[in-house]
Known about the structure:
Blueprint: E1 4-8, H1 14-21, H2 37-52, E2 56-63, E3 66-77, E4 82-89, H3 98-112, E5 118-124, H4 128-136, E6 140-151, E7 154-164
Parallel strand pairs: 4-5
Antiparallel strand pairs: 1-2, 2-3, 3-4, 5-7, 6-7
Helix pairs in contact: 1-2, 3-4
Keywords: Transferase
Pfam family, one: Acetyltransf_3
GO molecular function: protein N-terminal-serine acetyltransferase activity; protein-N-terminal-alanine acetyltransferase activity
Amino acid sequence: MTGFRLREWEESDAAVLLAAYAGAGMATERPADVATVEDAGRLIAGWAEDAVADRAYTFAVVDGADILGQMRVTTHLRVHSIGWISYWTLEKHRGRGVGSTGLKLLARHCFDELDLFRLETGHRVDNPGSCRVATAAGFLVEGRERQKLLYDGVRYDTETHARLATDPDPA
């Protein structure tokens, strides 16, 4: 495996996070209230609070000191040991295995450290890159959700994937 690893976001990463949100395909990832480095710093601080409260865990995918992407799991279905995962890779690092490796690392963390049993994720059906990330990380396709997401007045179908703690680790 590569030298990629997960680490918590730090407030000093705010400028990198803000720049990442300006990249191609990132418009739907950027929260509406994040327009400045200070806003990004507050967002990162909020993620730390979410982790303390066991609501969500948000990690930067890094290689050495370089931030390559993000992995996030929300635990709002903790009563059923289910986590919902979202992820993205900075535009200049796409196609290098950042997403799939990061997702494998996050899944292992969720199963071993967070005691989750089922992990779910999904992507728009017109996003084959996200599909490749999920399947390479051992997430099986479970179905299509019709017109689930709304972006700029257009509804999009999504494809749902899941991985269980009892599934074999992908190669």
